[in-house]
Design goal:
Elements: H1 19-36, H2 41-44, H3 62-72, H4 77-89, H5 93-97, H6 101-110, E1 112-116, E2 122-126, H7 131-139, H8 168-186, H9 192-201
Antiparallel strand pairs: 1-2
Helix pairs in contact: 3-4, 3-8, 4-7, 4-8, 4-9, 6-7
Length: 202
């Protein structure tokens, strides 16, 4: 498929393809040309694409981060803990949502939080200074939780269930909504991934 003088001959309806599909095709061609040691430009010119102009991404600075922390204090305890942990741990949203109750309990005792990075690899994180937040998180009930503790209280198995007892996507959306609402109260436009960048620059 990578031969011939006219890179557009092998498909006639590229213009009718959705932009997302054309982006995937361009990415695949770049990857394949890299493997072959050739330039992809000859092929990419045959795949027109209209790039959207995206708004500038602004990473919260120290002042914005402090405003965010103040705004987070207005949430109920479990919600407050998760809103703040987004900023203070620097985890990806899915990593935070998938923290297990057992791992948080261990972290409160030892000051070491074991979690799974993207790809499933386990990693150790020092959280001695975050113990109060983790203790607060442990005390939070899960929404519509199925698991019942020995005392009869509804408890969560993974941290995302404090926000939503649904599937992982529902938990991520609930966390994103919490972070955006907290940011709105602080007067900043923010989402979980931007807080991860803010953590890295503090």
């Amino acid at each position: 498929a990578f031969g011939g003088p006219n890179p557009g001959e092998w498909v006639d309806d590229l213009q009718s393809w959705p932009v997302g599909c054309r982006k995937l095709l361009r990415a695949a061609i770049r990857h394949r040309c890299t493997e072959l040691g050739t330039s992809p430009e000859h092929w990419l010119t045959a795949i027109p694409i209209e790039y959207e102009v995206r708004r500038e991404v602004v990473i919260p600075g120290e002042e914005e981060a402090r405003d965010y922390e103040v705004a987070a204090d207005s949430h109920p305890p479990g919600f407050r803990a998760l809103a703040l942990l987004c900023l203070k741990l620097g985890f990806r949203a899915e990593e935070l949502c998938s923290l297990t109750r057992e791992a948080v309990k261990r972290a409160v005792k030892t000051g070491e939080l074991i979690f799974r990075r993207k790809g499933g690899k386990e990693q150790l994180f020092q959280v001695e200074k975050l113990k109060p937040l983790l203790e607060e998180l442990l005390e939070a009930p899960a929404r519509r939780a199925r698991r019942i503790s020995s005392t009869g209280a509804k408890v969560w198995h993974t941290a995302g269930q404090v926000l939503s007892a649904g599937g992982s996507k529902a938990q991520y959306n609930a966390l994103r909504k919490l972070v955006k609402e907290t940011g709105s109260r602080a007067g900043i436009d923010v989402r979980p991934h931007l807080l991860r960048h803010a953590f890295a620059t503090r």
